[in-house]
Specification:
By secondary structure, the protein is an alpha/beta fold. It has a single domain (17-187), classed as P-loop containing nucleotide triphosphate hydrolases (Rossmann fold, 3-Layer(aba) Sandwich), CATH 3.40.50.300. It is built from six helices and six strands, in the order αβαβββαβααβα. The chain has helices spanning 2-13, 30-41, 108-119, 144-150, 155-158, 176-186, and strands spanning 16-23, 59-66, 69-76, 95-101, 129-134, 163-167. A six-stranded mixed beta sheet has the order 2-3-1-4-5-6, sandwiched between helices. β2 (59-66) and β3 form a beta hairpin. The longest helix is centred in the N-terminal third of the chain and has 12 residues, at 2-13. The protein starts with a helix and ends in a 5-residue tail after the last helix. The relative contact order is 0.18. The model is unreliable at 185-191 (pLDDT under 50). The protein binds guanosine-5'-triphosphate and magnesium ion.
């Protein structure tokens, strides 16, 4: 009887937990994206002022519940010397959100190199990828097709894993909702 009841309780209330890494170069908007996501998805969450966000040295963690899923985000610092720490988190991650600064064409190839190195890791084999073309509020920024073209030679390394490129404006929250959750569900994370 106890087993039955505890099974029923777990079925009704226990959440499936997923760890999602948020990666990308410094200044891409990862922490801004995380703060917006927490604000949009967590009732009563009083987010920090976005203008007070400074470069991440280490890691920010955020958790949101969506339906029966609990998503734990790990937002890692993107500065060059911090990128060597990213792979410590790969083995435990169920998905990666890779944020690109669409206003910074000058660093697009650097971003592509970091992305390519990340997806080359065996620990991330088969892990779904959501690529966010951030800062779409800025006029004349790179579009999703521009970014897809610049990253096109990563296709063999992406292989058969799910990968979606979405436009996003983390600063205002525009598209955060659709690009974070529905894209993750498209990628099969909430199955
Ligand atoms: N215009 C615009 N600016 C943005 C957007 N998202 C982030 N920013 C700005 O970009 C800058 C960097 O944002 P962060 O969120 O700190 O970037 P990060 O990727 O976490 O950077 P690191 O922690 O150094 O790796 C800040 O000045 C943000 O206000 C956006 O959608 N539009
Ligand atoms: Mg940050």
């Amino acid at each position: 009887m106890y087993t039955l009841l505890s099974g029923l309780y777990k079925y009704m209330f226990q959440k499936d937990e997923y760890c999602i890494l948020i990666l990308g170069l410094d200044n891409a908007g990862k922490t801004t994206f995380l703060e917006q996501t927490k604000t949009k998805f967590s009732k009563n969450y009083k987010g920090m002022s976005l203008s007070k966000i400074t470069t991440t040295v280490g890691l920010n963690i955020g958790t949101i519940d969506v339906g029966k899923a609990r998503l734990m985000f790990w937002d890692l610092g993107g500065q060059e010397e911090l990128q060597s720490l990213w792979d410590k988190y790969y083995a435990e991650s169920h998905g990666v959100i890779y944020v690109i600064d669409s206003t910074d064409e000058g660093r697009l190839s650097e971003s592509k190199e970091a992305f390519e190195k990340m997806i080359s890791s065996e620990a991330l084999e088969g892990v779904p990828l959501l690529v966010l073309a951030n800062k779409q509020d800025v006029p004349d920024c790179l579009s999703v097709p521009d970014i897809k073209t610049a990253f096109s030679d990563c296709a063999p390394k992406i292989g058969k894993r799910d990968c979606l490129v979405q436009p996003c404006t983390a600063l205002t929250g525009a598209l955060v909702l659709c690009s974070s959750w529905s894209s993750l569900s498209t990628l099969g994370l909430n199955n």
